[in-house]
């Protein structure tokens, strides 16, 4: 099970957001931008609105083309120009559920429409129609377009509705139409000339070529006279029914009939405020429009056939007008302005880019306001919400213009989440004024530090066990390294160091924006080279600079590009020398160059690309570089070309054109060896977006260079190509500025020479992985499983690396005296450095995962005791992991983080589970952290809900999926969280319905009112029958609801959090229901136990590696109290099935299921150690019947026999009294497994059999073994008083050699009776062999008698010749001791003699005990604490609970 927690690091400046697509739901607004980001703006249910973004959806690296909300469950479909589509849940935390790539032949998606659900649809999932086509690139020929139908839940292409050249030009609008006759769905596409083409959506077949019917072909000249000479169409809109198309021109809007192609009418706005010339001299013009839908805006029909539609038109100045257009029988046409939204006043600079969308009766205006910093253009979004039904009528009383809409709220991106806003230091940034880069370079005085905007970023972590720094490249050319973790705080900051500590370093010299960054650790040794780690930066100024990352000096400046440098690619894993110390630079000039860091020269140049290679991959083993020049504006042969270059010769190997190029490029990427640290195809640490990597399906790691196949290592699709997985070796930093490099001799980057080291590194689980999906945003993903598997890490390697670094560092710093003389490295330093790497990793994780500023006392305790503090220097936010490398990160601020706690049960479960597990692990590592760790665990299990009452309870199904986690701390945390949240999170179908007492009535008043109602209800028999019928119907309904809930598996969002399947959903439901039955039976329905027990048994027998062990534990725990009654006689059959399952698990696995061996061992331990003993104790007779039959039904060497013996031992330890009546059966079975005639069984079971005999002799005092372990004596514990015997066995021959008579003494037979005149009573209480083995002594509490058998030295020989009962040699009566009570339930002959059983006899007169009740009473009174100890040769001492009761001479 995956358990990932994400922490996001935001730069001090907010990101740029140029809106390209919008979508609104009743609860939120979504805006997509040109850089691929999608912002979520939550909205309250009613005004006033104050829209502010709460989360950033990270799944795309290209411009967003469409946002499509989907119903039930609410979700959002996103598409971008790169051909990637993604599905996000529309409710917090807006996790990415699916991320897929469209087929290369489909092209780039441009328009998306939700298809209506039809009865003929094979799937219940919603479907969407996606139009994919190339943008118009100016060529005269027509391009191939595709209309594909995609399952909106799985994002799989169901079928292709159209593939070919459209009859119309580039479509600008899409709509759906449904035929009233056969409910056939068709997609209507309209171009800029008003021409439309209808494409029927037929399942199962695609329509080829131009066969779809083109409804109208009309030229632009027919209506161009009403517009400017060029007749430019700004926008196209289609009505919801697809019958009317609106062509938005500069000053008017033409409405055309789709079917006939005729002009229905024109809406002129030439004299309105939308198109008037402003004071700045800029004349406004229309820029967009759409038809309103829903309610009164959706086009109602009148009696005369007139259809009234509502149309929104907006201008480039931000103003908009809402018109109601009436269209009837031609030439009937009329329009009326309903309301108006004022434009945006701009004093100077560029106007914002404006878009509108509808949300019910409101219009939302989205403005993308431009501003410049250092020559770069940025965009700031601004949202305003306007009402269409709340109008300001006073303004339009004396004018001809329509009334103004009322603004309901405004908001923007910059808020309190970015305390250092641009507007503080740059007051005119919103008005398009360019800000000097000199202001941004004034970092020394701090005046312009917060005014810089990040253009590139990456996280440094490949050489340490945890991320230690983040590198920011700014648009003004500065580079800043911020270190947020100091692994040795005491070395520099003295005692009491707290981390993460912030320190900074700057690299200055670039004259343009930093577009790409990379950090490389040198592999080869060189005496002439002083640097060990290099920082490489590419800039907008066309230069590449190489820096000494440790020393901070500039090493080289390269000028081989004539355009901006946009990518730097490091060598992947297993790259051969000397290419392992090189990097590849990619520029906008189309040049790809190979540069050596050893020689600081360009070694290879690969020119001649048709355009900028947007995707470049380097295969270091085979020695090839693949460059994909994929134009997002064309999908023809010219626009998509793949170039493959030979690195060794520098020659171009081949060129692949067309849509095949992308498929070949993906195949090329599959063959690249994964980086041993990053897990991606790109080597080292770079700033390349993790979303640029191709979405590969089912990839496996190829064989490495030494021939070792590592395909058994699973591929994690969540790992992006530049995800930086953290290696186990740590690099300590003494000064907080210069991270120490890893020892080269132990480095995993040894150019493939040490293959075994590489394979070992590949098999490591790196607990923290980092990526930068967008500039200025870094995500740290914490893998709980990998963190918990890091137990016992040693610091020895790191200590040696630290000493080597401190002695060899060129920039020596002041060190504490004696710091380098200590052979143990850091052990002399103060806390928290005096700990293992595991402890440092746990503290680092808690720094970023803990929710700060909610409980101040807890925060102070963490800082003081655990040395954990809130990170500083960058804004920290939370996030969640999505599908295939996607993320959703919240904006900084406690409010946004609490919002996700309040809305997502899955997030609450995952984050609480991670923190509680880490806290419990910290307690085991350090005693000084006990108080802080306990307080932290208590906060997330109980106190958090008290502090914030409206947070969501954790998802119970998600928690139970971690009950079998490999880490004990995770298992404990999952169970603790389950128990704390279970009483408040009972699923509705399982919850018992209780009558709630009104608040104004006390409990006594309620009972006084309820009792008369019950009495009156019982008077009428008819009413009683009616109630019974209602209860019967209700029971049937409850049964149906419970069964449906137990078998439900659809729409289980928590499954995607852990990578589960539908089987996991059903299994978790069964586990949750069973847990409620066992632990909380009073709050669930009574019939739940009967409905879930069979499902629970099936889950045990299904061998599910995640849930079967848990199901076995629940069956065992509730067997005596619940399941025993439900199962009845089926326990015996279940026992047989379990033993058969154990035999199957114990068989040798085949070669192809070796990975299941650990699962089989875990399951076997659960069945043997937990379930079987509980089943045996529930039905002991059935247990003995089953295990005795297994002797003949299975082979002699079957593991079932050993398992049966071990189960018998556990029953002895767990419930010995219940086994007392069946001692003979237990002894007989044990001796049968030791039969010398069956040597195979004896050899397999001898050890377990002797253990069982010793355990029986230890637990039952009426069973004795002699000191030489050759003789066994077994007395009757409970039985008939006239047939009490003691059997003596020879263990070597496994035979019964004599029977000793232990009946009552002569003359007193009538007194040896139990209650109710029964003769079944407690017989032999204790046995003991004499030290010489020639005698046997027995004590009976019933009668207080001690018997002694002594036959001299030849006793055993005489016994072996005859099995007739032998009378005792001596009989001694034991006097009652102090505290002995004959009036108790004990059956004593003394109580009969003294007449103290009057009370007992009086009870027997009132009721007669049957045989079963008498047996239960006897077992209850059976005392197993008596012991006989030999003091001397002929002296015996009787004890009870180790208390001396007397000494007797024999």
Automatic annotation (TrEMBL):
Pfam families: WD40 (PF00400). Residues 747-760 have a biased composition (Polar residues). The keyword Repeat applies. The keyword Cytoplasm does not apply. Residues 735-746 have a biased composition (Basic and acidic residues). WD repeats lie at residues 535-557. InterPro entries: ARM-type_fold, WD40/YVTN_repeat-like_dom_sf, WD40_repeat_CS, WD40_repeat_dom_sf, WD40_rpt, WDR72-like. This is Transducin/WD40 repeat-like superfamily protein. It comes from Triticum aestivum.
